[in-house]
Amino acid sequence: MTKRLFIAIDLPESTRRILSGLDPDIRGVRWVDAEQMHLTLGFFADVPEEINLAFREKLSGIDFGAFFLPIIGVGAFPPRGWPKVIWIGVGRGHPHLFQLHKRVSDAAIASALEPDLRPWHPHITIARCRDVAPQLVRQFLKSNIDLDAGMIRVDSFHLYSSTLTPAGPIHTRELSVGCRE
Questions:
Q1: In this predicted model, what pLDDT tens digit does every residue of 96-136 receive, in sequence order?
Q2: Total domains, the chain
Q3: Which CATH number goes with the domain that contains 162?
Q4: Cβ burial, residue 180 (10 Å; 0-12/13-18/19+)
Q5: Is the peptide bond before 78 cis (omega within 30 degrees of 0)?
Q6: Residues 6+ positions from 29 with CB-CB distance below 8 Å
Q7: Which 8-state DSSP code applies to residue 180?
Q8: Which of 2, 9, 96, 104 has an alpha carbon 20 to 30 Å from 121's alpha carbon atom?
Q9: Domain span holding position 143
Q10: Cβ neighbour number for residue 2 with a 10 Å cutoff
């Protein structure tokens, strides 16, 4: 049996509330449930149980210090044409965040998982779009161009399993790794 796994930084309740409150109620734009908003450090589909166990062990050994991230700037993927995802960013090239992402990727490689070789663009998905005119999303992005949802303190990350259901994905926390004090 295999699992869909992802590693994420959770958001504080206050930040999730701010992001949920941005919902412009556009037809075809489905806002992510506040409880499921997170910053993904890595995603791995179809992970066999024995690799999952090795991966957990490697993740548990990651050493990092706490740091702060700004939750700032909105955008869409793809940047041109019909949008699929609306996101909020985390500032520009935060060195501690990229270092943590690299350590998670190294743990995956050491556990025989295939790394994602595409460039990593750290973001928090806040909505998914289906057949939404690009100008409607551009209007939302323009009206929120200066959005600043404050800073979050990153002092842990989590391994989740994700089960796809017709009602949407169900995320189950499997492991938490805290920073050194």
A1: 999 999 999 999 999 999 877 888 999 999 999 999 999 99
A2: 1
A3: 3.90.1140.10
A4: exposed
A5: yes
A6: 23, 86, 127, 128, 129, 132, 136, 137
A7: B
A8: 2
A9: 2-178
A10: 12
